[in-house]
Amino acid sequence: LWPNALGILASAVVFHLIDRHDHNPAATILLFTMLTFSAYGRLPMLRFKPLVFISTISYALYLVHNNLGCVLIYHVNQAGIPPLAAMFIGIAFVIGISALITFWLERPLTKFLRNRWLGFSRRRAGEHLGRLASIKQLTNQNISTS
Known about the structure:
single chain; about 150 residues; about 0% strand
């Protein structure tokens, strides 16, 4: 418990010292307190299904939100839809595209690449062990002939 808490405290101090912008130190303390509590499972609100879903698609969301979201909001607004409605349409679209990217592209591709890598690394390990066995066999033959 203490090494983790000390590490989190140290990172909060470093963050506060290097971030010299206008921010509220109480916000830093709040964020790192939430980080600490979530690390130890003390924030059940972070297990709220919509938050878990958004965190699952967060990388794809990060990649597409600005490019697709802003362009879509602009064009929907230009088509005469009120700005607030355009924003909600953009949010729904970006969340949907991010979910598709995560579940139909990122996860299957990750699984495929991981399996390929494991097969490759196992073959390499087998080749390495085969070379070691050959070297050991040659060494044993040299010792027995001496």
